[in-house]
Amino acid sequence: MHILALPDDILFSVVLYLSIVDVLALRQTCRTLHAFGGNDYLWHRLMSRFGLPLNLPTDVPLSSHATDILQQEAIKAIRLELNWRKPISHIHRSRSVSKGTREPYTHMQFLPGGKWLLTAQRYHRLLMTRHTTRMSVWSFDDVDNPHCVFRVELTGTYRSSALALKQNGASAWLVLGIEDDFQEFVEIRSISLREDVDSAYLRRSSPSPENWKRLELPFYPVLGDRSIQDVHLSEGVLVVTVAIFGEHNDISFHILLMDPEAGELRWVDPAFTKDFGLLQVRIQHGKMYLLEQRHSTNYVHVYDVPFDALDDKNSLLSRAPSVDTNLIDLGPELCRHTHSLPREVQSMADMLHVPRAFTSNIPVTMFDVSGFSHHSGYTCHYPFDADTGELPEKPVTSVWIPCRDDTSQQLVQIGTTGRRMVWMEHELETGRNRVMKFQMAKEDWEGGEKLLVVHGYLLPSEPNLPFALNACNCLAFDEVSGRLCLAFYDGGLHVLDFA
Questions:
Q1: Angle at the Cα of 177 (from 171 to 180), degrees rounded to 5?
Q2: Where in the sequence is the signal peptide annotated (predicted)?
Q3: Taking CA atoms, which of 133, 152, 205, 442 is between 20 and 30 Å from 300?
Q4: What pTM does this model have?
Q5: How far apart are CA 414 and CA 417, in angstroms?
Q6: Short-list 427, 423, 429, CA closest to 377
Q7: What DSSP designation does 460 have?
Q8: Selecting from 3.40.720.10, 3.40.50.300, 1.20.1280.50, 2.60.40.60, what CATH number does the domain 3-84 have?
């Protein structure tokens, strides 16, 4: 019997056994199968098992998108995946974004999708006693015309930052961690994303006081010198991780929470982070994930986000002469996942590299920066249910990341979903740089359990490009779009697209 003679329901069941690549090929055979292969319900079923990151809003169900959009994004994701698995990935587009400004970039990060880039420049002006930080937001919505939509200079030394789009898509929250005159501050700004800062026809004005505020860190019962380590903004909650240095050179980590629209900075009770080593905090599905390393073990602690405590009315009512009454109680621990580290990992003097969001797992990566000639990286993936935000009782998957002798691993950038990762490998003896790539994921992105590890050069030390990697001092990476941005000591920016 010819396949076209099958009833639609049987043909539908048969096609569901095919991969997306096969369905795309089937649509090219005849008009009837082309029309059948474009069925919305069919593509919603096919995409439900698709394991590659898609350049679509994460807060919108896939079933809400039309078939044409799903097919287009699936093709882009598959092409990027195949290109990423090559020994040397092909560069599809290369573009210089900004000429040198003489102030080097100290931090860059893409928002998921690679359409928005946040950059920080920290420098010291002549005849001024204070350091200055310049923050910029760049738009790549039109890849042929990237431009700066926001720029501000402020006094203070850059610590950390976070950028989050608002629902209207035309504005965003920009949160900065700043050190100014030996004090730590959190600055919150509501910014527009519809301007062109470098346009000759733009009349710019200073932001009104209602659009930004600088907050001091509130009083805290734990004494010592404070330093803002990380700023994270997700689901309308601001998380600030602070390191406090004690009298005996001991370091403890503590957490501040806030609703950026209406609320105040409030400390989490230090009992929840007591004896923590390295710490990263993430928020997703209304849950707060505390990822920490203590002695020879990595931990993932899960709590409910205390939304009631962050409400402006509740926080105002909670102010009282007793300091302890204003501390946030996270409540009972929902679950905990542990992973015992190999002995070689326990001495790694590095931070925990964690993505901004989680999908099918929670990847945690560490690199050895102790300076020894023989060292490696280590990554472990905790099981994660993306629909519920829970941690299933499954074993942790881990793998070593071999590194060349006499090199240091710098500027680690892990993708939004943790599938792909890049970093700069610096040769200590020759001073040459390379951009490395890594991926640990399922070999079949539509099913199966077999893992495939991809590790190699993304850019060799002497790429056929109009710049030298030795002059690169900062980079940003978006795994969904396959976009890499390189910054150089002279303040120039260059963008490479691998999709």
A1: 125
A2: none
A3: 442
A4: 0.89
A5: 8
A6: 423
A7: -
A8: 1.20.1280.50
